[in-house]
Amino acid sequence: MGRVGLGVAAGCAAATCAIAAALVARRAAARSRWRRAVALLREFEDGCATPPPRLRQVVDAMVVEMHAGLASDGGSKLKMLLTFVDALPAGNEEGTYYSIDLGGTNFRVLKVEVGDGSVVTRRKVELPIPEELIKGTIEELFNFVAVTLKEFVEAEDGKDEQRALGFTFSFPVRQTSVSSGSLIRWTKGFLIEDVVGKDVAQCLNEALARSGLNVRVTALVNDTVGTLALGHYHDEDTVAAVIIGAGTNACYIERTDAIIKCQGLLTNSGGMVVNMEWGNFWSSHLPRTPYDISLDDETQNRNDQGFEKMISGIYLGEIARLVLHRMALESDVFGDAADNLSTPFTLSTPLLAAIRKDDSPDLSEVRRILQDHLKIPDTPLKTRRLVVKVCDIVTRRAARLAAAGIVGILKKLGRDGSGIASSGRTRGQLRRTVVAIEGGLYEGYPEFREYLDEALVEILGEEVARTVTLEVTVDGSGAGAALLAAVHSSNRQQGSI
């Protein structure tokens, strides 16, 4: 071989080595970026960890805050609002009642018939609230509601007969009686001025009078209280209600002598439903991550609703998106599609649930969601598995924290079994406890429900957990409000707490 041939061979060898070196370097870089994504996943999983000891700390913190909120207004992140509902349905109510459910951009009107131990919704209509009314005046909003109700009643009854109305108003309200209460603040995008501090039931009654309708508000409740009423109607062992859907809240039956901030001002029935507004609960024991802080910074109610932002449907998808976006920025797991994860709230909680539910071998549904909804094509299987894991971590933490909140209520009521050993009570003396529960996360997301139920057993122990039933209650905000109108319209006390 001549010098030229040797030179060509040497050049080819050098080029081959260079290519090989480049490939090795590229693979090493890819492995390094993948390791970074995995490290971020593990870091997030550790930050969201909710072992039983930590959950018990959350339980205890919840109980402390409940006591503080009952002792004084402003004494706790938990508002512990009095509802003045001191009588719940007992199953012997009778009659026809109407209810209005106003808690978002839609509102519902229902006709409910009660009797013979059953509650039947005879008719229901749901209408969107025009955008201009959400930011208009309270007179315009309630005139619209009153006219809609009048048309509904006249189509149903065709006669001018006075009817009791249950009004579900799912915004924070400081109640002064079972049928009156002043708005604390608007939420859910409502921006009607000069209403905070006004009696919303009175405002609606005035609109009803202007419309000429012979209907008046008999019970002013939120969706949680309505859920408790409907649950108690079907099962008298129901002592609390929890909403876990787009938002979250809880209420329960409290002894009137434990409500220190209103001693001497309450009825003698012995108990009253307390609206906890538990979405605002906060404790240093809650597993907060940098992604939760970023989420809080994105929201209009920054530094509020800390518990809700960890467990409710509005926020879970967004937490997962924040994690995936950081992975996209610090690794190449999504290729050039990192910018597609930069828009807040593009990953909804229903999509998160669909991702977590996908049990196909190749995660085909995850691929479709990433491609169709997030515009991330051609993801390898290992990346899709990574996405599923992120959604699972978010779901698991949310469900387990919700379980801790429920146990907090049980402990406040002395129904968590914590006094069994010291008092020497036998198994036969454990009381059966029912918690009415409503909301899409618990009802429609099996993995969320399984994680919550599993955590209840871990916190309470199997023996006590067997005495606790979470009973799905459908349409508490509608039928439950009508039931409370039935109870409190006649001043009967058969259903007293």
UniProtKB/TrEMBL annotation:
Q: Which GO terms describe its biological process?
A: glycolytic process; hexose metabolic process; intracellular glucose homeostasis; response to glucose
Q: Where is the Hexokinase C-terminal domain?
A: 240-487
**InterPro entries reported in the protein's UniProt record:** ATPase_NBD, Hexokinase, Hexokinase_BS, Hexokinase_C, Hexokinase_N
Q: GO: which molecular function terms? A: ATP binding; D-glucose binding; glucokinase activity
Superkingdom of origin organism: Eukaryota
UniProt domain Hexokinase N-terminal: residue ranges: 41-233
Provide the Gene Ontology terms for cellular component. Answer: cytosol; mitochondrion
User: Catalysed reaction(s)?
Assistant: D-fructose + ATP = D-fructose 6-phosphate + ADP + H(+); a D-hexose + ATP = a D-hexose 6-phosphate + ADP + H(+); D-glucose + ATP = D-glucose 6-phosphate + ADP + H(+)
Assigned keywords, A-Z: ATP-binding, Glycolysis, Kinase, Nucleotide-binding, Transferase
Q: Does the keyword Nucleotide-binding apply?
A: yes
Query: What's its top-level EC category?
Result: transferase
Which pathway does the UniProt entry assign to this protein?
Carbohydrate metabolism; hexose metabolism; Carbohydrate degradation; glycolysis; D-glyceraldehyde 3-phosphate and glycerone phosphate from D-glucose: step 1/4
E.C. code: 2.7.1.-
What family does the database annotate?
Belongs to the hexokinase family.
For this entry, the protein name equals Phosphotransferase
